[in-house]
Amino acid sequence: MRRPTLEAVAARAGVSRATASRVVNGQTTVAPHIRDAVLRAIDELGYVPNPAARSLVTQRTDSVALVVSEPGTRVFSEDPLFSTAIRSASMELEAVNKQVVLMLASSAKSHARVERYIAGGHVDGVMLISMHGADPLPAALSRLRVPVVSYGRPAVPVDIPFVDNDNVGGAEAGVRHLVESGRRRIATIAGPQDMIAGQDRLAGYRNVLRDSDRRSIVAVGDFTRESGAVAMRQLLGDDPGLDAVFVANDLMAVGALQSLRQAGRRVPDDVAVVGFDDIEAAKYTEPPLTTLRHPVSEQAAAMVKLLLGLFEGGAIDPVILPTELVVRESA
């Protein structure tokens, strides 16, 4: 059977092809009774709009690129941030009849590929996640005049709306909890310093130690479990007397707990541990992990709402979401 055409819909509804096209493309300049007649004809005939033709008329693709500046081995790893953010953004877009095009951009070659794809008009807007250092994409996409929003404050000076959580305030709350519990030699395993989250959480740690007359003891990881284990061993070697550690994300904290256990250190008796993110695994570590709850799903949903606001041409302000200290047995 041949697919029903727009002409067949117009004939069944008793209207012109142009009127049927306006209804199909969601225009509001059609009388309600005529709209109902066209929609009824669409239902009776089983008409499905041709997406390519519809895009020519509406100048919209109803697709949004979700660009993650990480390799596939990181995105599709044990880190739940990526799967949670992608799932939440996809659900929010699906609710408004838009789809996600997932693109990975961790090299100069992939940056160029992403830029060409978006310049080709294949998507209506872009959401950026996990940007590092002087990532060229924010500035490049801004020059293309395509709507762009960022999951996290951009590390480069570019005028892009963003949604972030209070990384500095969250870190301060976690370290302050350790200070108030009487810990004196508080170390940190910081996140990568080419990422805003890593920089801000380290800044929050240092703010509290400076105000409480304690010295900083710092090792740096890359937000993976293995890097947390390595950094914890380094810290124990540098300062065997440390009695607490603030870890810039929960995956690194899981690795740190493993190293502490292997070194014969009891948690929290000998060393208290505080993480950041409150991933599901934080409830099931040994002991359960005290951490800062980072609202990943809410942040991704807010990013989608920012982008939809840009589609409407509105003025968009950055959004900062609060974090929450979740006290468990590790501290």
From TrEMBL:
Pfam families: LacI (PF00356), Peripla_BP_3 (PF13377). Keywords: DNA-binding, Transcription, Transcription regulation. Residues 4-58 form the HTH lacI-type domain. Transmembrane segments: none annotated. Signal peptide: none annotated. GO terms for molecular function: DNA-binding transcription factor activity; transcription cis-regulatory region binding. InterPro entries: HTH_LacI, LacI/GalR-like_sensor, Lambda_DNA-bd_dom_sf, Peripla_BP_I. This is Transcriptional regulator, LacI family.
